[in-house]
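Support request from a user on the community tier.

User writes: "When I paste my structure tokens into the form, the page sometimes reloads and wipes my input. The last time it worked, I copied everything first. Here is what I submitted, just in case something in the input itself triggers the reload:"
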């Protein structure tokens, strides 16, 4: 699929072979605050999730893709469209590049650009949005690079390490509408 291939990065559907990678990501407590996770996931639950990952976005209301380098099928991250709302033509976007060694090398930038293009051109979405901790400067820079605008702040929204943190809502409207 040309839409999901960039210069160095490609986005692909999840495969059964991604079980270990997703297990590691979902059980990494250092990033649970990003996904509002509080409990670990078992191999069994993740295997069930992967078995259902072939569902169409219209059924599942979510699309999760693996972020990979062109020359490798091993994922370096995950990118999602979530809360897909076909009636109102919108969805949320979340992205995670798992290892720090793969960050700040344009993989996240390229992956986000590919997913935005896919959401607007193939799914005909009117808008996409992201919920970002107001102290997550790297994510704020990434999303604003694509024209996302902060449209509001949910004060004291998430409890992390005993402290309530604000979460900002960023939105990007499809310029073709």
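"...and here is what came back when it finally went through:"
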């Amino acid at each position: 699929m040309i839409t999901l291939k960039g210069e160095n990065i490609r986005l692909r559907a999840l495969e059964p072979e991604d079980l270990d990678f997703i297990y590691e990501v979902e059980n990494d407590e250092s990033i649970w605050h990003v996904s509002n996770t509080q409990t670990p996931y078992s191999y069994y639950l993740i295997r069930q999730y992967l078995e259902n990952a072939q569902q169409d976005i219209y059924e599942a209301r979510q699309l999760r893709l693996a972020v990979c380098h062109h020359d490798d099928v091993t994922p370096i991250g995950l990118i999602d469209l979530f809360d897909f709302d076909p009636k109102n033509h919108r969805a949320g976007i979340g992205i995670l590049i798992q290892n720090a060694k793969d960050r700040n090398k344009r993989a996240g930038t390229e992956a986000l650009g590919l997913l935005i293009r896919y959401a607007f051109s193939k799914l005909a979405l009117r808008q996409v949005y992201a919920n970002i901790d107001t102290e997550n400067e790297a994510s704020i820079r990434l999303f604003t690079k694509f024209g996302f605008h902060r449209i509001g702040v949910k004060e004291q929204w998430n409890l992390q390490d005993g402290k309530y943190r604000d979460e900002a809502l960023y939105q990007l409207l499809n310029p073709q509408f």
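Agent notes: The reload is a front-end session timeout and is unrelated to the input. Strands lie at 9-13, 63-69, 75-85, 90-97, 127-133, 149-160, 163-173. The mean pLDDT is 92. Escalated to web team.
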